[in-house]
## 1
Amino acid sequence: MTLELAKLTDQLAQMAQTTARAHVLRRARLDEALATLRAHRTAWTAVAQALALAEEKADRKVYRSARPFDAQEPLDAAISPAVPPSRATLIATDGSQIMPDRHAAYLYYLINIGGIVYHHGSSQAPHTFSFPRLVYPQDEAALDAFNSRSGAVSIERDMGEIAELARQAQQHRQEGAPLLAVLDQRLLYWPIGSTGVADNAAVTEWGGYMTAIRQAGALLCGYIDRPGANAVLTLLKSLTAVADPTFVWHTLGSHAATRGLTDRDLFAEFLQPGQRSKLFVNISPPNETFARQDAANEVCFFYLHAGQGIARVDIPRWVAEDEKTVTAVHALLVDQCRILGDYPYILARADEIAVVGHRDHEELEFAIELQMQKQGVRSAPTAKQGGKNLARGGKQRFTGG
């Protein structure tokens, strides 16, 4: 062990003291947000006026908020799950990758898409699948571009996940209704390309797959564990800002305006295990783009107490508009979470199938080396990588995975 923890004792104590002070302030801010939520729980006129003023005064570059989907339930609704459908088919996909490494012996990247088809209410065993794909430069001219593809690889993996989800939905469209397709990420996909702006081609492609899933007759949701968004809190802040002449409107939507709180903090205060919030619509320029491409793809969401924590569930408008389908999605997700305790079983299995671990990486490298030897090709990692491997003696850098 090379980390000398004894030299961190004072710093750790200071960290704990700072965190304790922050918790006291956080509690006060959370109580204030809860009071606003309850005071305006059915104040639909005030909500509409506050949102209109926010649209006028806020900075659109940072303004992200929530709008109540309807006036059927109050803002602080806590909706218990119904009994799930007796039969349903659930599909989940996930992806993993090995990024290109310019220090490796051979330049390539790998994307593995995995998933599961789960037959709810049936004795039929789940069906799993995986589709690995190896990509490498086809000629010398491609080498420079290939070395800078890390961001593009992530987008390619995401596209692979939803493309396979759409293909599986089409393939299983005749099976037990409802048919629910689940992604382990947000539906409002907005990747930033190498130029620092949104990758419009990727956004358009993503929306096309969402539409394909709808056309296959499936329901769709994106499941976000431990979400960090503050859209509902931004709505509450706009309600209090209307009567506050000192409020700086161009900060609305930023974490500074909500002072570090998230929607997860808010809904953890009153949702019980299995319960969900009311439905909201995401207010943001990206969602406007989604709606322009296909109005049915406008992203809505609710918060869900998954058993031990709060998750966000994104659903497209075509699901949100039918109360029965929202009820089915809610009930099926809760049923899935109960299998493991706090996380949908199908998403855990999809991750298990898709993930490319360290041993997988080693075996792939060995297989590549064998094929290269058959062709009389020999190479080695860079001196830098070779030196690190020797010095670490088999130890691996912790990446937080």
Note: Strands lie at 65-68, 88-98, 109-120, 127-135, 179-183, 219-225, 280-283, 299-305, 310-316.
## 2
Amino acid sequence: MGGDRAPRVLLTADTVGGVWTYAVELARELAARGVQIALATMGGPLSAAQRAQIAHLSGVTVFDGGYRLEWMQDCWQHVQAAGEWLLHLEREFQPDVVHLNQFAFGALPFAAPTLVVAHSCVLSWWRAVHGEDAPREWDRYRDTVQAGLQGAGLVAAPTHAMLATLADHYGLREAGLVLPNGASAAAFAPTRKQHVVLAAGRFWDAAKNLAALEAVAPDLPWPVRIAGAAQHPDGGAVLPQGVQCLGQLARDELAGQFAVASIYALPARYEPFGLSVLEAALSGCALVLGDIASLRETWGTAATYVAPDDHEALRATLQRLIAQPAERERLAQAALARARHFTPARMADSYLAAYARLAPRFANSTPEEFACA
């Protein structure tokens, strides 16, 4: 690798959902290879648990913006201010690549080449949840996303299924990259399993379809535990009944729940990748998932699938696995074997290859060369 300094990436993240976990994992792995990271966060202030996650990351400098995201209510002044802030950070940090995990900023005049990664979008979420196109009130969002995609040097998504939605909803014609997420097996490991069904996700997000578990839980001989926020960022809360609500847990606390759960159930209507599923699989859980293209793409035969709206099928599937420990164990081992392919190292390799398509500094470089930079 040429040059007198380590390569630099300006990396955006939000503090609300799985993009935070993904961004921290990627930043940690890239920094271990000698890449300097400026991590620009938005969506809300960093929590104490999130600050603890990044406190000791060498080579990662965090900038806490707190701006509202492009899918939130009354966001557009925040999105404009966040864009100006990111342009300022770029001038100060001088990155070789700007890696954006929100769409809107792809249209900004960055000096460095840009990678926009599509983790989810409102239009595909709306169609999956409501079975129809988003209403006109989302037209500005649609136009903003389209402009961001058109302005990006390169577009990527964690699954082919998510990438396909960009062509469907925004007319993306350029070939994009599929860059799967990764999670560290060291953070997730099974212990002595208990008779528990676990789910994790924002209960207010209808895409997670956790209400289906709420509906079938009273008919199951095992308790159903749900970890995740009930409070919507825009206000209001959804409180489930008939299940054990664990609330929003820190990552190590959630790892403890994964470790003891025998079954992980996520009958999602929409899940472009599903980091919680990966973490559950690494923890030795048998997987019961929504029968949607992205989850089938990621998990293949290593999971059992149910139609998101078929509560009877969900109930019967969970009852069957509860009654058949050998089948639970078979599914758990299959999921674990598949999960071990989604490592942070492989994720970082994929992203370094994507960066190399944008910036010569990353081309023809090995991990050892990065570490020596």
Note: DSSP finds 14 helices and 13 strands in the chain.
## 3
Amino acid sequence: MPDLASYSGWAAHDGFVAPSRTRAAPWRLVLGVVMIIGVGLALNTALALVLSTLAPAFWVSQIAGGNPPGQSPASLLVLLGTFAFFSVGAALAVITLHGRGFATLIGPLRPALAQFRAVLALVVLTGLTIIALPPYDTGLSLEPNLPLATWIPLLPLSLAALLIQVGTEEILFRGYLQQQLAARFDSPLIWIGLPSLLFAAGHYAPSEAGENALLVSAWAGVFGVMMADLTARAGTLGPAIAVHLANNVVALLVVAVTDSMTGLALFASPTAASDPALVRAWLPVDFAMMLVSWLAARLALRR
């Protein structure tokens, strides 16, 4: 077994991976991925059937009306909530194929929660500090999206839905995939690199980002590497979920810059994410913020 402590302080990763070592055959991982995707899609289909049958007006007007999903509060809440179906698939996979509990995908729960709180607090404080510093003009032309009187009451539901979304993504990529790959392969190039490549591929959306799709996908890949590093340092998913949540709160609840998924945002940019000038101007800024959040999370873990 390699000395994970030699990898930039990743000693805690060995304990995080330990539950996955007993049934780490590659065929189990492949079958597990198929099961996760199959269960998630099946439950999504079942939900569509239920909504179209029991609430046809809602289904047509909010979900299947021809517009991109996520442009209304209800449709985006439903969309984010359906990520939980893939967590159900992950639970079934680890229980039936790997003989371990769902909670092992997250790591020890008490430390995970403590790390989540500490990292989220420092990342939010760092972000607010940066916002308070000049220059105060973002250069973005923002338009009001949701009225404040609507946005505030929706905030608890919005945060809960986002927590489901980011939690599921971390459970799948930095939990299931990273653990099972690390249980079989010593090299971080595999157990960090492969999940991060898949995470990047999952964010490749040329229909939304146009010619910026590769840049956005590359951004997601780097983000995945950073979240994998935090998970290896912490031995839980708590810090990665915290950073991911803070990032998506800004992108989906504060300022939305996509053609879709604007339903819960306080502001929206009239310029879409497919605009080359917008992305090329803001991607370095966004990358810098991502880097600062990652460093702040690492600092929180050292306290």
Note: Confidence is low (pLDDT under 50) at residues 1-5.
## 4
Amino acid sequence: MTHKVFRRFVAIGDSLTEGLGDERFHWDRQHAGWADRLAAILHESSASEGVALRYANLAVRSRKIEQVMTTQLAQALHLKPDLVTVMAGGNNLWNSDVDWARLGELYRNGISRLRDSGATVLVANSINPVHVRAFSSGRARAARMTEMIEAVAAEMGCGVIDLYRNELLHDVRAWARDRVHFGVGAHSSVANAAAGTLKLTKRILMPESEVLSDARHSTRDLAAWMARDVTPYFVRVARGTTAGDRVVAKRPRLSPIDNHPWSIIDTVSLPAVGTTLSESTPVSESTPLAFGG
């Protein structure tokens, strides 16, 4: 993919793209999550070229590929974007009876429609749920989902945000307390990975303290997780409801993101701004500064 200057960016997907897990989400849903961070990077990159970026985020929690590649995709096309990101499939991992042929056709047709519109399309493969032992039942499906998404991306000429092989996401400390949404540092890491895939030079600047949170392997922490997150999930399953039933998109229309809260640096000028990491530098708890991806 060659570097482009974008004017209209639309993100579609589920709770990861909506921004859940980001601490900001509780008081500022408009500026939370990896896609909002990527929009901020794009804003800064476009502004340096004298172009104003507008951004919409149509993602809603609990949505599966079936909803993302139909309803959300139609809404996205209506906005005539020149860049679309697609992060979907995480909510399909927990169905033991996945019809892979049907799902693959639906995904391929959706990406084809986006590409036919003239938009640059950036897709994310599946998370690899190795960070929690209880999620082991989804690991084989995650591998197959990644294979499916990457095959479509290769066919359609789309860039891929590699979640599956992102080692930061293999550590439970990179995740929010619910263990199913990116933590603050992971949201920044994914945004920076997306920026790298788009050949942009700007990155979210992230203190080391945001990369990994406190260890979460204690019996007390596990019990709290079961009561706070696992039990309510199974209650919703039993009732046939989802966490996103009454939720609407947080940014349904294209709008500026020039009041974003993040610090952004340009990797071209890294030697002038102090200690930093290259994108290949492993992130550890002793690293003084990080901008993952």
Note: Helices lie at 15-18, 34-47, 65-78, 100-116, 139-156, 184-197, 219-239.
